[in-house]
């Protein structure tokens, strides 16, 4: 059974689990972005993860998915579910846990990541802006959500 919990101070082992899910998820979902781009950002993400509000999905103390939230910008910095655990409602549970706490959310996704864009729209996020992410040469969509 998967439990959804806040993770305030990730251990080195938990950071390893988060990073594995993050890297694998980005490489799979963003095959239109250079693999080297994601590899070159690992250290930066590993440093930023503990500074974000983390909501994780755990199965027997093993992290199988997570959501990172940055309070200052109301931004979901990332939502990732391990490949073997996808399509089981974990992403929806992570999103619901955050929505229960926050009245306004924003996030960004590449337009070509159609599965993510469709998921966010199913979660009642609306596209509020299109822009070019010049670092990777891809159109990025801004999604916003507010409690009704």
**Uncertain spans:** none
Question: Which structural category do the helix and sheet elements fall into?
Answer: alpha+beta
Distance between the termini: 31 Å
Overall number of strands: 7
Could you say how many structural domains there are in total?
1
CATH architecture title: 3-Layer(aba) Sandwich
Radius of gyration: 15 Å
Order of helices and strands: EHHHEEEHEHEE
CATH level-3 fold name: Aminopeptidase
Q: Give the number of helices.
A: 5
Give a structural overview.
This protein is of the alpha+beta class and 148 residues long. The chain has a single domain (2-146), classed as 3-Layer(aba) Sandwich (Aminopeptidase), CATH 3.40.630.30. 34% of the residues lie in helices and 36% in strands. The protein is built from five helices and seven strands. A seven-stranded mixed β-sheet has the order 1-2-3-4-5-7-6, with helices on both faces. The radius of gyration is 15 Å and the shape is globular.
């Amino acid at each position: 059974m998967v439990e959804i919990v806040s993770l305030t101070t990730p251990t080195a082992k938990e950071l390893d689990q988060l990073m594995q899910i993050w890297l694998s998820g980005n490489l799979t979902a963003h095959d239109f972005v250079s693999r080297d781009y994601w590899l070159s950002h690992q250290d930066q993400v590993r440093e930023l993860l503990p500074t974000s509000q983390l909501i994780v999905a755990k199965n027997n103390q093993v992290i199988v998915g997570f959501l990172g939230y940055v309070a200052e910008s109301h931004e979901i910095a990332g939502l990732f579910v391990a490949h073997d655990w996808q399509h089981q409602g974990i992403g929806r549970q992570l999103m619901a846990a955050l929505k229960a706490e926050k009245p306004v959310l924003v996030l960004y996704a590449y337009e070509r990541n159609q599965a993510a864009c469709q998921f966010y729209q199913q979660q009642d996020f609306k596209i509020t802006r299109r822009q070019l992410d010049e670092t990777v040469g891809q159109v990025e969509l801004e999604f916003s959500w507010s409690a009704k």
